[in-house]
Amino acid sequence: MAIEIKVPTVGESISEVTLLKWTKKDGDYVERDEVIAELESEKATFEVNAEQAGVLKTGAQEGDTLKIGDLLATIDETAAKPEKKEEAPAAKPAEAPKATEASRPQQAEQPAAKPADVKATPVASAIIADKKVNPSTISASGAGGKILKDDVLAALSNPGRKSFDGGELFTRNTRTEKMSNLRKTISRRLVDAKNTTAMLTTFNEVDMGRIMEIRTKYKDKFKESHGVGLGFMSFFAKACAVALSEWPAVNAYIDGDQLIYHDYADISIAVSTPRGLTVPVIRNVESLSMADIEKKVIEMANKARDSKLTAEELTGGTFTITNGGVFGSLMSTPIINIPQSAILGMHKIQERPMAINGQVVVRPMMYIALSYDHRIIDGRESVSFLVRVKELLENPELLLFGKDPVRTLLEL
Questions:
Q1: Which residues, 6+ apart, have CB-to-CB distance to 92 below 8 Å?
Q2: Pairwise CA distance, residues 111 & 257, whole Å
């Protein structure tokens, strides 16, 4: 009897998914609960498991778009499980010495065939060494990717000119690639954010010197105690959680004609992956320690890159932090992650001359940006929120209580 494996329901608003890849091939024998395929919805990637043991027959191709409930595959549970062959392991020990002996002459000859670790003809290698040409800039035309004399001469006659794919110059080739569900979702949400919100951005700058001093002083002890590195994100997340509690409109969103406020900070952290941008959520940041936040950041980043995030981990955030500084961005205007009302943009830390107490001092500075929905957040709230984040980052000890210890002592 053949068991049908259908595309499962993955969310209320999701009607179709994309078959990313088969982890088992057509005709393979699979065990019960073994992963057979990976599907991608507009929110996350998830795995499909075999409901019974048997022989798999695939019903779709990788890259196909499938509706919820469509037939994905069938499993013939009546098929006999193939027996493992015992002969091959027994024969290997006897044959191994022969293979080793036969391979020795070839192994000895390989270095001679690749002078200076470059796969090139002797003449080409001599020219490369004489002219100090970088082999990676040369388009190889020889068999097996070997660099020929003419390839080196062509590179020397066209300095600084190289095609995208390492082939001939002045090509006009184009490529067509199907847009993934994730990219479609990103596109739709970005357009919706621009069209449905009254988005503005306010800027400020932060002296990161104090945080950098703390990280330098305590990073080894922190990692030894907590098993995770001390990064910048925990400081920013914690500072935002404090500021969100003081400026609740920044932590709210519009639902029809109502405003939904949150007495907690579920902060989405933007993570770039090869397939697109994802924003997993760290829940209750206000209740987490610095180590807890760092562990969550690493966990979510790893899941995002391995396409293991669930729909639940990608929804429900109340505020977003994005870090363009890891790519070298000095300043940008981040776009709101709807239905949220605000997003904080971190940027590159760069040494700049600053006037401090009448003296010009070089300090590690970072521009920060807050994009916000002006329908719910006024200018006073947005600017005050960003100023508060700046204050907390420049004086990290304030993160303990949210107030200056001396002012607290004096009850001011």
A1: none
A2: 74
For 409, counting Cβ atoms within 10 Å of its Cβ (0-12 exposed, 13-18 middle, 19+ buried), the class is exposed
Query: Which sequence positions are flagged as catalytic?
Result: 374, 378
- Return the structure tokens found at 385: 């929120």
Model confidence at 118, pLDDT cuts 50, 70, 90, reads: low
Name which of 383, 271, 279, 388 is nearest 327 in CA terms.
271
If phi over 0 gives left and psi between -120 and 50 gives alpha, with beta otherwise, what is residue 94?
A: alpha
Cα–Cα distance, 387 to 144 (Å, whole number)? 60
Burial annotation 43-66 (CB, 10 A radius, 16+ → b, else e): bbbbebebbebbbbebbbeeeeeb
| List of domains in the chain | 2-76 (2.40.50.100), 87-157 (no CATH), 181-409 (3.30.559.10)
- What would the pLDDT profile of 15-40 be if each residue is shown by its tens digit? 788 888 898 888 888 888 888 988 88
